Fold this protein.
Amino acid sequence: MLSLLETLINGLLLGALYALFGIGLSLSLGVMRMINIAHGDLIVLGAYLSSVIVLNTDLDPLSSLLIVIPMMFVIGWLLQKLLFNRVMGRDPLSPLLLTFGLSIVIQNLLQELFSADTRSLPAGDLALQGIELGGVNIGVLPLISAGISVLAFLFVAHLINRSPIGSAVRAVADDQETARLVGVNDRRLFAYMAGFVLVTVAVASVLYGMRTPFSPTAGPERLIYSFEAVVLGGLGNLWGTFFGGLIIGVAQLLGARIDTGLGPFFGHLVFLVVLIARPEGLFKAGRA
Amino acid sequence: MKSSKILAMLVLLGVLVALPWIGGYATQRLMVEVFTLYAIALAWNLLAGYGGIVAVGQHVFIGIGAYSLFFLSTSFGLNPWLMLPAAVVITALFALLFALPMFRLRGAYFAVGTWVLAEITRIAVLNSDWLGAGAGMPLSTMMGITRWLRNAGIYWAALAVGVGSLGVVWWLLRGRLGLALLSVRDNEAAAAASGVNVLRTKVILWLVAAAITGLAGAVAYMNTLQVTPSASFSLNWTAAAIFIAVLGGIGTLEGPLIGVLVYFLLREMFSSYGSWYFIVLGCIAILTMLLAPGGAWSLLTRRRPLDPFGIRRMLS
């Protein structure tokens, strides 16, 4: 019974990280109406950037974010400016195929630069520490990363619902044409949005790299988990994405109890079953 | 069609059929890859270019087709060629089952959703001991067949898959379904209003694409005599299909033909460069989407319209 509770809690903590993967995907789908197939590969890219910084400086992974975050912002801004903006509004398939090509380029560039070997970010003492609550053991690192995920969701929700940039973003999400008429420069806005999306990716990537070994081809799986979180939560529903991530995390770890190789299988299964039973997602679509 | 054209096509077909007597085993094996990948790209293009539905997880049907053939043939000791129709039927049944969750999704969501299908199926096969788990299955029923006949037989099967899938797609697009598809692609609401059953049209397309892909996958793995989950349920298949269709021209029947030629030309020349080869392929796909989203065929026909397959519809 206690071990089941432990699995449940660990599943929620893992799911919070998946939710953090999904936050950027949710934003690009909700506001820019595009899906970035390279989303998972950008998560892996962020982890490699952090790894390079950690190996060449005195910084630990978490403080490497001081450098990784601005770098990822610039990468996102440039990608949107140079590539994505040129194919947006044409038809929904063009951005998808373009980012598919980008995904292959990133994976193979990483392979060329860092070889196919797995590596991980040194978490130091954090990886070993745990706290015991009524007989249940919880790792400190998963707890911290879940905490950061909750903070990220609070921050993004506040930004979108309360700030002036947020109102422009909401306007574009609701009606791009009218937003343009009242003076919103959507292309410029999208470039900043993409930069911001990669800021969330940067945070997610460092936490991910500290928890799990990664390799150049780990990206697609991250994309799929993020995607499942977004769709389960209901499209355009930011907090829905958060809970969607939690469900995938719990399903994976409960599934792994049945058979260690079947963890992700049960995550996918829950996703498909929910899709048949409640195609609109588990949570009613609301304000992004 | 002019009689000289028909004659040229018959000569070409005759040479292709006679290849086992002309070329060596290496040529035949390469041609098996060309024809099967062509059929897969054609199926992807049929879905994306004519149905407006992108399937990033199309490789799920390669794995299902190949495993159907290997399982039936190996466990019951049956002739693998005779099991090809069964592989097609099994793949189509899976596609029907998959349609249940997938057609709740639209556009980009459908695209990535099919990827989830491929992943869940791959993990299921990987954990199934009766399918050989991670090590996969051999095609042991090929043992008693002479090398020449085996290679020639697989080659002819691949040739039939390539030519046959083009025939099926051409026939579909010329008929009622083709007209319905065009109207759905151009304006879904207007098509529905004029009596086109949009969902039914798309599901039929999905089943046809799945059947072609499953058959091509089965023949492709006859060529290697061993199927494994990681290779047959690999995204690389769909990536190649997308590259071929995008480069040649999405939504044209000629596109995959040009695309597959360019793809194998590049592969034979540059694949020894490893990662750099794939980086260049990815960049070519990105540049095509940016500069010529209609692909090579749109560049060729910009000056003068060509319609070798007679399926374009013009208002006159």
